[in-house]
Amino acid sequence: MAEFILEMKKITKEFPGVKALDNVNLQVRPGEIHALVGENGAGKSTLMNVLSGTYPYGTYSGDIVYNGEECQFKTLHDSEEKGIVIIHQELALIPELSIGENMFLGNERKGRFGIDWDRTYHEAGEHMRQVGLKEEATTLIKDIGTGKQQLVEIAKALSKNVKLLILDEPTSSLNEEDSKMLLDLLLGFKKEGMTSIIISHKLNEISYVADKITVLRDGSTIETIDNADHNIDEARIIRGMVGRELSDRYPSREHNVSDKVGLEVSGWTVHHPIYTEKKVVDNVSFNVRRGEIVGFSGLQGAGRTELAMSIFGRSYGTGVSGKLKIDGKETELKSVRSAIEAGLAYVTEDRKGNGLILSESIAKNTTMSRLEKVCSKGIINFDKENAVANDYKEKLKTKTPSVQQAVGNLSGGNQQKVLLAKWMFADPEVLILDEPTRGIDVGAKYEIYCIMNDLVAQGKSVVMISSEMPELLGMCDRIYVMNEGKMVAEMPASEATQEKIMSAILQSDKK
Amino acid sequence: MNVKTFIKKYTMVIALVVVFIFFAIWTDQKLLLAQNLSNLLIQNSYVLVLACGMLMCILTGGNIDLSVGSTVCLIGAVAAQMLTKHNMNPIAVICLCLLFSVLIGMWQGFWIGYIHIPPFICTLAGMFLFRGFGRAILESKTIAITQSEGSVGKKFLDIFASYIDVPGLDHSWTIKAEDRTVEVKLSAFILGIVIAVALIAITILNRAKKAKKGYKQEPAISQFGKILVIDALVLAYTWKLALYKGIPVMAIWVLAVVCIYAFITSKTAFGRYFYAVGGNEKATKLSGINTNKVYFMAYTSMSLLAGLSGLLVAARVGSVNGDTGNSFEMDAIGSCFIGGASAYGGSGTVGGVMVGAILLGVINQGMSIKGLDNNWQYVVKGGVLLIAVIFDVVSNKKTGKAG
To answer: Which among A13, A36, A326, B199 has the fewest CB atoms less than 10 Å away?
Structure first.
């Protein structure tokens, strides 16, 4: 057997105006877990798309040698035939079809007349057992959580006889528990001799599973680090990614919390929009003072997003009850518009789905929530709009040639900045940031933290919902912990630790 | 701007020019006769008006309104009956008809916007409903609008289908043109000159304002070049109008609608919301914009324009029957997509849609002059629509964003 199962040599791929990959080399040994890291836009996904044939042979230059033979994949199908399967960040499952149907989509188990359903569900069940998924193969995808959907994707890959599994940000939408399970599954496959390539921003996970780490920066390979002992220093990886030492991952700030309460919520209860008897948020009370960053920790599905959205003009749920005070004044916010006018802003966790209009320009996105500020008598003043957008572009250091650029062309971190700009332009007193750093690189994270610090320095209140505990510990003044719709703990950040937060969640589970 | 981006930006304009030249040659320049050019506008007035409203619906996410042809019939029928049976004042008829069409639009807009009935189904139902009501009102007959001098019918026709005539100005000059002696309707050409000068003046003022504030400007050559081309077309066209009866009143109605919708879509916050809903409805909702109202307004405005179209068509044809307005919705939808509106919503301009509508109009007119029957016009229309959309999709894919 060859020394390497996969060798990508001098891969260069250009898009109109951009060199996405420049002489990239990647060598993967059989049976190892190889991590690919780099900032957003470094070229990780592009490289994997070249490998899988999404960008067909001929649109790039360089060689791919797989199992000792040179490959010229023209379609995804070609690479899958050789056992290379890629699982994308956005899951490619069809919600209205069952697990079994999804697993063999495009690869149906045929009998003499059409599809052999017995065989389909039998084989689906076997692959599900391999990944430890305890569901019926006939269950619809929409009825299982994201974590399980990710497992279905992996089972689907297994059904294709996968030899080299590529995972693009597999854990970005999973909570810690599900992530751990997924990573352990990968380690299990490794023992059976499967090779995997994993793209991730979560350095702790990489350190945990990867044997080798290849760092990409600006479309070039920087280095391949050995991680045989699984104890690599995260700072070591970061240094490669950003090309400099990030001595402090969280910017320091003066903690100037005022006595005035910016937002106070008490006895807040929200019911599920469809299963109306189910309480998604159950009698929750909390407050944020001016100049304070308050963190919300909890597992996926703890009800944090639902809490935030229901406060923000009842954009989630039914049967919302409870008291809401802004700056000490009791208010009722029945629509998003009234929430914005009352000085509230909710920066969504799903920037592509709920936050931005990807096909529109940065300028148009920036002014969307308060378009009237650049209008007179309903007529838009384009010069003013562009000036505003440029202003935020400078302030937030958004990397773009022009504010007329469509947001969809920006990297994740820069999109997040546009989303922040949009809500800063609405000039709120209380900002609720839902997973503000999800899926963005270390450098951009730091800049977003700085923006948060600026906001509280101006006397605004910030609520930060995050699934990354180190980030909450690093940034917040106080941390609330939620679990299954209930508030289970509140602690000053200075006393909080990851263990304390986790035990608060676990103890509440036992009750 | 290099040649490639120029072609990409003005594909449909170039296509229009090519098609126009083709038909001009193929019809031995009959297409260029003053009468034909004047009729080109009048005959397609209903498409131009409907396409503006259809664009608003399509912007919200590729949603279309199938009921407009039937609404044209219904409103035309109501107007014809009011005029012939009840001898009502034409101004009152117009006001009532437009009010009635707004009510129709509110009816559809309510179901689509607030109850979330899929637009395709809701307007399909409307298509049957309004066609049925229209035929019932007509009692399955063809109602002709009386044209005798002094009747309300004549007054009604004058409001939509006459030509502007300025006494003393329009009868003083005759020349020989197009192998005959014609009275030159100077008012038409004077209007052309006024528009041409106004366009230049607005451009200069705008540039001065931008320069004063130090904003970035388009290069002077390309901007003035564009304006000069447009001016030349305006002057040429109004000269042709001057040679044939002058300015049709219908053109003024169409021009007003087009200008209003162009203004709304490009310059107002209200118009911006239509693009936002089509671009990402959830994000728009979470930005505090009432998306239900956007749908409601789209369908209300669509029916208002369908009503206006009904009046225009009734006045132009002079009668209304059960088949009036048949498949008008398809012409309007076709114009939008040929004119570059996205089938998924969120993009498209009034200017583009006008080019699409005129392109279809030129093809129709050219083929009619050549005496080809209707069947072939359908074939060609279908072909053009398909090619336009294929071109749009393919060219967008090639320059799509880097993955």
So the answer is: B199
Distances B293 to A95, B248, B306 between C-alpha atoms, Å:
30, 36, 20
Closest CA to A340 of A436, A435, A422: A422
What distance lies between CA A90 and its chain's CA centroid? 10
Share of chain A above pLDDT 70, in %: 97
Instruction: Confirm or reject contact between B215 and chain A (CB < 8 A).
Output: yes
Architecture label for domain A261-510:
3-Layer(aba) Sandwich (3.40)
From A30-44, A236-250, A258-272, the region with the lowest mean pLDDT: A236-250
- The answer regarding whether domain A6-242 maps to CATH 3.40.50.300 reads yes
Q: Kind of pairing, strands A486-492 and A478-483?
A: antiparallel
Identify residue B88 by its one-letter amino acid code.
Answer: M
Please indicate, yes or no, if residue B238 is contained in any of the structural domains: no
Domains identified in chain B, total number:
1
| Contact between residue B236 and residue B320 where contact means Cβ atoms under 8 Å apart | no
Closest-CA residue of A relative to B346 is: A359
Domains A6-242 and A261-510 equal at CATH topology level: yes
Q: CB of A348 within 8 Å of any CB in chain B?
A: yes
pLDDT of residue B403: 29
B 127-156: CB under 8 A from A: none
Q: Each residue of B149-192: pLDDT tens digit? A: 888 899 999 999 889 888 877 777 788 877 778 888 888 999 99
Decide if pLDDT at A2 tops 70: no
- Enter the ipTM: 0.85
Radius of gyration of chain A (CA): 24
Q: To which H or E segment does residue B40 belong?
A: helix B34-43
Higher per-residue pLDDT: B177 or A23: A23
d(CA B98, CA B102): 6
**Residue B366's domain is classified under what CATH number?**
1.10.3470
Q: Is B380 exposed, middle or buried (0-12, 13-18, 19+ CB in 10 A)?
A: middle
B162 in A contact zone (CB under 8 Å): no
- Contacts of B179 by beta carbon, 8 Å cutoff, 6+ apart: none
Cα nearest neighbour of B266 on chain A: A380
Residues of chain B contacting residue A20, judged by C-beta atoms under 8 Å apart: 402
